[in-house]
Amino acid sequence: MTRESPLMTAVVFDGKKLFVTKTPLPVPGNNEVLVKVLKAGICNTDLEITRGYVPDFNGIPGHEFVGIIAEACDTSIIGKRCTAEINYGCGTCDYCRNGMERHCPKRTVLGIINRNGAFAEYIAVPVKNITFIPDAIPDNRAVFIEPLAAALEILDQISITAKHTVLLWGEGKLGLLIGQVLSTTGCSLTIAGKHADKMAFIENNKVKKVLAENFQDGKYDIVIEATGNPSVFNRALLNVKPRGTLVLKSTYANDITFNPSSVVVDEITILGSRCGRFAEAIAFMSKNDIPFERLISREFHISSALEAFEYSAKPGILKVVLYVAGA
Asked: Alpha-carbon distance 66 to 77, whole Å?
């Protein structure tokens, strides 16, 4: 492609501070494509990176994005709208050979571990990680593919049906996506959160929504902890039935303390749940006409990224999106 300048606008974290600067365009390596970023979402992980949650990260953060392929060896895919799976395994270890690149001990992670992310005009990613986005899914909905995949990962790990009682702690960005996913399973779902206006995004009338301050402890088949608050862990564990399951979606910046006796006595399963498959998220979006874009609190141009990060960190704010096309 013809470029007017060898530099691009990018948001960089140097290990101490976040700033907007000009940096060289990435040069795609073997089996990589160059993607022109259109929009990218700021998530809690990005905020935690700027607070030192991810040790030793230096570079361009951002992993929730929508873009257009600008350069590729296969010219037939140039111009197609896409996003990309965020985990990149070594390809040779036992995990990678068994389809578990997301757990490769040598993996890089887009905008999180040893790989520049999407808060830039362009990004280079392996072609095998590219996922094409159907025309029917608009950009402001497609920017939720990555976190929606993480929400759907729960259903890939455990069966949740109409016979289950489920408690979801948390009504943040990820919590609401999880709630939306669970509302389609027919389970008896209760959401406990701090903000009634946020929980209103889940429009299914069969879903019970309770303010956390009014929640009465009970026993549920499955409890999902998605608050990001370590103090909620023990409360969530308290609400799990014997032989029930506690699903952890939160990654805590600090250690937690708990007595595992109830886990042993009640034979409770504690299940960690992280990234999901993008194909599943796109299939879910295509099947269910859910206006995920309503979760966007505000959009900022990439040149105002510092203001966007400050705004995203405010209480009550949901998704903040950077638009970078034409930056």
From this structure: 15
Task: For residue 198, give the 3-state DSSP assignment.
Answer: helix
CATH number assigned to the domain comprising residue 218: 3.40.50.720
Same domain, 61 and 157: no
Domains in the chain: how many in total? 2
pTM of the model: 0.92
**Which one-letter amino acid corresponds to residue 89?**
G
237 is a domain residue: yes
pLDDT digit string (tens) for 280-327? Answer: 999 999 999 999 999 999 999 999 999 999 999 998 899 999 998 654
Alpha helices, DSSP H, located in the chain? 44-50, 94-97, 139-142, 145-157, 173-182, 196-199, 233-238, 261-265, 278-287, 305-312
φ and ψ at 97, to 5 degrees?
-65, -20
